[in-house]
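F.,

This is the one I mentioned.
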């Protein structure tokens, strides 16, 4: 089956999951709850079959949330020194801009600052937003749920890197010397976009 068909199956599975979760949230009828639960299970089975992920892992992603389903938030910090951008090396050997899921009780600004401190050891000021992107339109592989990626230009105030539970190194790279990237988190195109925003004081926020 070609990639276009696989993506279509995943879109159908995601939509069924969305409808089932909404139904489970709002229905008061026990029989409807049973029906919506079965629809959610079918969606997970479809996603497992098409993605190759174990069914239990898909259920963990698909079937544990309650309430009206909305996209998750992920922040990525663009930090520059001269004409180079800061990347952190993960334990699998790939590199990414510091960032991660927006935690409960955090804002876009505070989460960006927190993630940089945790992954790069730096204290930063979040200066301005570069872009808001639908992750599945820009990064691979596609995920079973939607994510809004927020790229934030930051200025270093102080601090220094120390190895931690998430990253083993940090380094600045020019656009023509990028290492192997964690492309599920950031691509060369996204990093190039951050370079453009850094160089342009009148940058207009990009959004999908």
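My design for it:
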């Amino acid at each position: 089956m070609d990639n276009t068909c696989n993506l279509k199956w995943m879109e159908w599975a995601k939509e069924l999951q969305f409808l089932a979760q909404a139904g489970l949230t709002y229905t008061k009828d026990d029989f409807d709850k049973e029906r919506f639960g079965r629809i959610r299970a079918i969606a997970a089975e479809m996603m497992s079959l098409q993605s190759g992920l174990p069914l239990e892992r898909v259920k963990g992603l698909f079937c544990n949330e309650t309430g009206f389903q909305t996209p998750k938030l992920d922040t990525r910090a663009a930090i520059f020194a001269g004409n180079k951008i800061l990347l952190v090396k993960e334990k699998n050997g790939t590199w990414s801009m510091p960032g991660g899921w927006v935690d409960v009780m955090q804002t876009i600004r505070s989460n960006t600052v927190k993630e940089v401190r945790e992954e790069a050891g730096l204290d930063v000021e979040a200066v301005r937003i570069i872009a808001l992107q639908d992750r599945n339109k820009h990064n691979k592989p596609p995920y079973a749920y939607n994510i809004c990626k927020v790229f934030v230009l930051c200025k270093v105030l102080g601090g220094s890197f120390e190895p931690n539970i998430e990253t083993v190194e940090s380094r600045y790279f020019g656009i023509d010397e990028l290492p192997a990237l964690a492309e599920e988190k950031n691509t060369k195109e996204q990093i190039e976009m951050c370079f453009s925003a850094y160089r342009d004081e009148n940058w207009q926020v990009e959004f999908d």
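The mean pLDDT is 91.

Talk soon.
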